[in-house]
Amino acid sequence: MLSRPLQRFLDSIFLRIGGGDAIRADELRTRATGSFLAFIMLSYIPLIAAVALLAVNRPAAVDEAAERDQLSAIEAYATHYVDTYLKDPSNSAAIKQFYDGEVPASALPAGGRALRASSALPGVIVDGFQTYSVVVDAEIPKAANSASMVFVRLQVDISADRKNLFRAFTLPHARPDRPSGAPVELATQTLVSEDRPVFKTVSGFLSAMLTGQGDLAPYIAVGSGLTAAQPPRFTTMAIERVQTNSDLANAQDVPPKAEGIEVTVRAVMQTSSGVLMPMDFPLLMSVAGGHWQVDRINDAPSIVAPNDSGSTQAPTTPTTTTTTPPMYAPNTPEGS
């Protein structure tokens, strides 16, 4: 509903256009109002159509749990297939429970085994059939009746049909190792001096957590969930260096406030049998109550990418690939 001043203003405009004739001014106002409403209605039609088109073509929400479950099912099927193939390569009947193609006679000695699926990548989708390439780590005997085993990496190609039932469409084939990737570095580049409070905190923390020497509580944040290993996994510990990504952690005094400080500790741990194990411990630390504390083990430490990558620093983030939802109906033999 128009306000009274605006209505008077419009009346004066239409009265002026109508040459001072009130009846003609009313006709002009009615005609203009109708045209305006018609324009509004017509403009809504393409807007509604655009919204409907977006709704129809909206991508389906990614169910990450279903994706992981699907890949786990594919990995299990491929591992069982490779295990059956290696245990007795001459048993074509057993192999054909996974693979419908020709199974030629093989001189491969029986007694091999699949260890684990090390990689499972979605391939292509053709007429509702989704393919996967799965790399399985395995062992085969060096010779017939040999107890010595040789490590091999085998790839198999699996399809999931429209009902999400699995079937191999290649025999296992040798897969070379992937080449090494471009190196990255931890973003904790600043060396922390031994006399700094952070150094003393991480030393006491690792010693209490891994060797059982001292109380863990003074070094960890309340609610961190960190606990000392029982029984202790190591007997002694020697810290080689402590590094950080913040000048606050290298300060002589404890700052009034600090959160999310990344610290990496290089330590050499010794087992009860005398074995020395160099280890890196990425930690997240903060200041509370006037002292440094360990909040948690850092599962996603920051990195510095190589200079030729076009970036100085990049976070590590998981990627997902859309797959069909699992239905738990692989064509495996009974008792598998």
Query: Mind describing the biggest β-sheet?
Result: 5 strands, antiparallel
Model regions low in confidence, pLDDT < 50 over at least 5 residues: 309-336
Gross morphology? flat
pLDDT average, as an integer?
Answer: 85
C-alpha-based Rg, rounded = 34 Å
Please give the share of residues in helix: 25-40%
N-C termini distance: 75 Å
Main CATH class of the largest domain: Alpha Beta
CATH 2nd-level architecture of the largest domain? Roll
Derived from helix and strand composition plus strand pairing, the structural class reads alpha+beta
The fraction of residues in strands falls at 25-35%
**Would you report the number of β strands?**
12
Tally of helical segments: 5
Structure overview:
This protein has 336 residues and is an alpha+beta fold. The chain is 27% helix and 26% strand. It is built from five helices and twelve strands. Strands 1, 2, 3, 4 and 5 form a five-stranded antiparallel sheet that branches. A five-stranded antiparallel sheet has the order 7-8-9-10-11, covered by helices on one side. A two-stranded antiparallel ribbon has the order 6-12. The radius of gyration is 34 Å and the shape is flat. It starts with a helix and ends in a 32-residue tail after the last strand. The C terminus is likely disordered. Keywords: Membrane, Plasmid, Transmembrane, Transmembrane helix. This is Conjugative transposon protein TcpC. It comes from Mycolicibacterium fluoranthenivorans.
